[in-house]
Amino acid sequence: MRADQILHPTPEGLYCPPGDFYIDPVRPVHRALITHGHGDHARAGHGVVLATAQTLDIMAIRYGQDFAGQRQVANGPLRIHDTTVSFHPAGHILGSAQIAIQPDKGPKIVVSGDYCRRPNPVCAPFEPVPCDIFVTEATFGLPVFCHPDPLQEMSRLTASMAEFPDRPHLIGAYALGKAQRVIALARQAGIDGPIAIHGALQNLCDYHIAQGIDLGPLVPATADTVTAQLVIAPPSAFASPWVQRFRDPVIGFASGWMQVRARARQRGVELPLIISDHVDWPQVTNTIRELSPSEVWITHGTEDGLMRWCELEGVAARPLRLVGYEDEPE
Length: 330
Description:
By secondary structure, the chain is α/β, with parallel strands linked by helices. It has helices spanning 3-6, 53-63, 150-163, 178-188, 202-210, 261-266, 281-291, 303-313, and strands spanning 8-10, 13-16, 21-23, 31-33, 46-51, 68-73, 78-80, 83-89, 97-103, 109-111, 133-138, 169-172, 195-197, 218-220, 230-233, 250-254, 271-273, 295-301, 316-319. The chain has a 7-stranded mixed sheet, with helices on one face. Strands 1-2-3-4-5-6 form a 6-stranded mixed sheet.
């Protein structure tokens, strides 16, 4: 069986005919396998959703208990029609997974979803899965993207807090994954006191704590007076009246895109923190070298740069040009 008969793009998303399922579909389908809980990958309305237990919990928190007709936890290898599928940690956010597809006849395909190779205190580390075809993201698929050590970025935050002790530091971070990672990194960097969080982060932070992730003392940033010097909020909050309660704040944003200075200026960011939950250029190219697949398929991101690299490395590659994927929507 040819690879494109095992997995190919459709308007709904990546479809596997021998298994009769879709991976991270952007429209409601009868059976969806979900890599992780971000809204551009995990959507409500499917007939059956198969995902890790944590991803299913996160989808229920975000969309309500009836987000799908049926839920199925991905425990161990599972038979789905003429395929065997398995889920493996992706290192992106809590519950994130790569999906391995082994048809009864044909090459083994691993769909990475979003993934990261740097240590992340709020989720399991990426697990390399040998495969014939590796489907990789290319969010930061250009050589210019070489992200620094996250703890190095957090040292810039602590230095700013020491330099401006009377100014609250408001850090924008996506509600799922990035916010909790920033909090955990702040603890590793020695910030032991209460951290204030926007109300939109409360339920997801509570879930991480219930899963055994120590985020330290958190206080709500919804009262009229917030005494904590460090405040974490979703980026959308910075365009709302909520931000006006803080006097002379230091505005920060934690994202891999903060390496692009124009983006930081456009957002009015005084303290850009280059902290990414995606692979940068060295990570994605080293991952391909490590797995040594016979072919690489490239999804959302800068496909041309990685295509050219694969060509120079003698690795067969092609773009999938999937639509509907972007930064985590707020």
